[in-house]
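Z., the sequence and structure:
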Amino acid sequence: MVFTASFIQVLREETSEIIDICSSLNKNEVFIGRINEVVVLNNSNGLLLKAEHFFLSDCIATYNLCLVKEEDKSRFTLAYYYDALRNDSFADEKEVKALNTLVSTENFKKHISKIRNENSLLWSEQNDQKYFIPSVLLEINDPKYEWILDKYQNFLKYSYGVKFKDKQDFGTFIGLKSNPKDVSNSDVTSISKNDSLEIVLQELEQLIGLEEVKKDVYELINLLEIQKKRSSEGLKNIEVTLHTVFLGPPGTGKTSVARLLGRIFKHLGFLSKGQMYETDREGMIAGYVGQTAAKVDKVVEESLGGVLFIDEAYALTTNATGNDYGSEAINTLLKRMEDHRGDLAVVVAGYTEPMKDFVEFNPGLRSRFNRFFRFNHFAPEQLFLIFENFCKSSDFVIDADAKEKLADTFELLYSKKDENFGNARVVRNLFEKCVQNQANRIVLLPSINQEILKTFTEIDIPEPKETQKQVSFFQE
């Protein structure tokens, strides 16, 4: 048998405690108000989401970290938590034999996939955090933070048998920032101890589009693997730089790929940690002589062992005269790259033509950045897939007429795009507009059921030309 009656009893006791904790959190107006500010609301009745919704979403985020270990017992655990938190339903220990038979069926596996897709909440603003409840509890300084980490830790133990020596070790595994107010580490993305090259490559494959980039990544992996084998045989190697230039428009996954690269380099043994530190011109340049070098030093220190990702790097050279200290930042960065060439990868990103000018700005940049990844605009069908992903994550479905209108919209947007087109960012803005339109349409209906609440109709999708005008306005 996959699990026993005593295991079901353990889950019953655990989820009963969780429900009590959630009930307490639901009475905390500060907590409920704040956590509903940071999430994309998908209801149209003005009601706030309860702690149970966020707890389940956080559990799914932790569950997804160990998908390579997924088996019938872990699926059952997730289903049990779902039924307890969302349906106030508990499996009967007396039916353990029937339940063991059920979890091995394909329909049950599809049910688990649906739970994962439909109960993962979205942050209302771009945020590297995955976990709503602990992040907000830290922000409002609520001591229940410790309870919540215990419960998340237990969930992983019951699902996958994963155990941790303490909360700090667990927090590191799930990538939870110890204090969201700690500015010095707010731009660092760390990786879990259970991460592996296989997991990273699975995440890479799940990214929509980016076929050329994926090909470049695999070719780089092959090169690094052979370099390792040559070294192990005592053969000489050419010097391979990890520093890379990402060329392309916004919203095409450059930041996501940079995070994956850090983890790949770590698992191949070319970086010691694999974390990513994200910055831009503002994070590297100060207003007075001597301060810029100190800011660059701090950025590099945070990045050692991993990837330093500099977005819109060409901004460092746009005003490289007078009192602008962009040249000082670049010269300091080049020296630090040389000092730490064995344990630092720098990825610079931005629009294609300005980035080419940036690399040609001085010989030091040109010699260190000779690997280019090109990120293309998403095609209409890829934009549609991104929209569907937003829907799945927020309990929405699209009816046939709405799908046709969306397809027309993405065809028009793609045909009218320029280099400033925001791709996935445009899709997210459109999705949020559809949520608002749907709410306005159904709020006064005399009767509202679940089907109505979760369905986008053609009326909810803005006219394609209206969306194009909005996009053009923001691009200008």
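Confidence is low (pLDDT under 50) at residues 179-186. The first strand starts at residue 188 and ends at 189.

Let me know what you think.
H.
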